[in-house]
Amino acid sequence: MNEPHLLKQTLRAVMAGQQRAAADPHRPLWHLAPPVGLMNDPNGFIQFNQRYHLCYQWNPLACAHGAKFWGHWSSADLVNWQHEPLALAPVEEYESHGCYSGSAVDDHGVLTLVYTGNVKFEQGRTAWQCLARLNPQGEFDKLGPVLALPAGYTGHVRDPKVWRHQESWWMVLGAQDSDLQGKVLLLQSPDLQSWTLKGEIAGSGLGGLGAFGYMWECPDLFRLADQDILVVCPQGLAAESYRYLNTFQSGYFSGELDYDAGHYHHGEFHELDHGFEFYAPQTTASDEGRRLLIGWMGVPDQEEFYQPTIDHGWIHTMTCPRELSWQAGKLFQQPARELRQLRSCARTFNGEAASLPELDIASAEIDFAVNGEFSASFAGILQLHCDRLGLTLTRSNRRSGETEHRYWRGTVTHLQILCDSSSVEIFINHGEAVMSARYFPGSQPQLRLQGHSMLALHHWSLKRCVI
Ligand code: FRU
Question: Would you say the CB of residue 100 lies under 6 angstroms from ligand 1?
Fold first, then answer.
């Protein structure tokens, strides 16, 4: 589509719809959500010149997937975000069906985006890995494709995550090989322009994995403590009793990457989040060396869970920003410490779970040690049960009415629960695991606890900071 027409259409959609979206009672008070339309993956997450930038996959024209744009926010503190002008619109031939996911790097002082130009034909598709660079006027100039489809893969090659290591640029790419197996490719470049394929570093049928999905999306590779962590989203894993229960999974491997040999020696796949909504996370290193992660609080093709925000012209949110650490052989996630700025009206409640008053959870944080069985009902529509097996989160599917469960198995000693107007994120044992879920309560939602456990609970209201 021609550029001025598409940009005008987008502007019109935002101007016509943003007030209605902002007035939605389910609009988050402190999580990021699109001004209008559909948002999915976080893209281009970086701290650049002391400011965080977070772009996102965006269809401003409908609450449905389609040709994707890159929306763009920036923030000094990961808490207060400002919406920036559109970063990328799919106007060129090499991105005719979407500026798909990708990442951002600081290339000698220039903020540079590396993303996938997605092109669909009547039969099949292709993908180009492309560059765009921020100009002094604050717009991204497209440099066009720097990498075509490598031989031996289908048109599903996408989501470049690029980083610097020992005088080279490195890229991981999600891919599907011609036998329809999901893979992660490693590439090297001296200048971001010319790329050499080092090989497949992980995938279905590799590294001790049997068949493990037909496509791997959104890889991210980084060093944390003494581990090389590969975060990735394999598609096509069969559901098991207690895991892989969402339509698609998002998880990580840990191990050692041999850059020269293009070989990654890794352990098992672990899911990153055990709730109903989590996918396509992206990480970045902050200036002071923290590894931060933001995920999409949604899952592709999980549309049977109807989200009423569509009636207000928008759909999906991001997770809160999370800090990663490596502890006792596991990847821990904790809410970014900056989020403490949102706390107000601290209160404490002590007593047997069932005797505690209902707690306001419209926008709140609740923190407590756990020493026995209890249940918690979020506005009567999302239930959390804690026993010696672990946690079970239960929600009824809004379309079919069927009850669905998600599980975390292990000993629960502590919970930190972050609630916004239509989401909860449950951090277990100071970040050993997380369960994230959207839910759509009425006004003034309350948490009701049940059980005989004695609890000492800290409760804060969380201040509004995005509109
Ligand atoms: C993951 C994903 C990516 C792709 C993008 C398109 O949710 O399918 O693989 O780049 O979304 O919006």
Answer: yes
Answer whether 95 contacts ligand 1 (Cβ < 6 A): no
Continuous segment of H or E residues that includes residue 322:
strand 322-327
Q: What is the Å distance from ligand 1's center to 298 Cα? A: 12
DSSP label at residue 18:
H
Three-class SS state of 420? strand
C-alpha torsion angle, residues 371, 374, 379, 383 (rounded to 10): 110
Q: How far apart, in whole angstroms, are the C-alpha atoms of residue 167 and residue 343?
A: 42
Nearest to 107 by CA among 164, 154, 31, 47: 164
Q: What domains sit in the chain, N to C, each tagged with a CATH number?
A: 335-462 (2.60.120.560)
Give catalytic residue positions: 41
Say how many Å lie between the CA of residue 242 and the centre of ligand 1. 26
Q: Identify the band that residue 306 occupies on the pLDDT scale cut at 50, 70 and 90.
A: confident
pLDDT at 258: 98
Q: What separation in angstroms does the CA of 422 have from each of 28, 133, 168?
A: 6, 36, 43
Report d(CA 45, CA 71) in Å as an integer. 12
Query: What pLDDT digit, counting tens, does each position of 400-450 carry?
Result: 778 999 999 999 999 999 999 999 999 999 999 999 999 999 999 999 999
The pLDDT tens digits of the residues spanning 152-201 come to: 999 999 999 999 999 999 999 999 999 999 999 999 999 999 999 999 99
Residue 466 pLDDT more than 80?
A: no
- pLDDT of 346-370, one tens digit each? 999 999 999 999 999 999 999 999 9
Probe residue for ligand 1, chosen from 159, 185, 231, 299 as the CB with the greatest number of ligand atoms within 8 Å: 159
| Interatomic CA distance for residues 113 and 93, integer angstroms | 18
Measured from the CB, is residue 280 less than 6 Å from ligand 1? yes
The pick from 56, 58, 100 for probing ligand 1's pocket by mutation, whose C-beta has the most ligand atoms within 8 angstroms, reads 100
Residue ranges in 147-277 assigned as alpha helix (H): none
Of 57, 97, 185, 278, the residue with max ligand 1 atoms within 8 A of its CB, to mutate for a pocket test, comes to: 57
Q: Is 41 in the pocket of ligand 1 (CB under 6 A)?
A: yes
Distance 41 CA to ligand 1 centre (A): 7
Q: What is the Cβ-side half-sphere exposure of residue 104, based on CA atoms within 13 angstroms? A: 28
CA–centroid distance, residue 115 to ligand 1 (Å): 11
Residue 325: both structure tokens together:
């650490």
pLDDT for 467 beyond 60? no
Q: Do the beta carbons of residue 423 and residue 438 sit within 8 Å?
A: yes
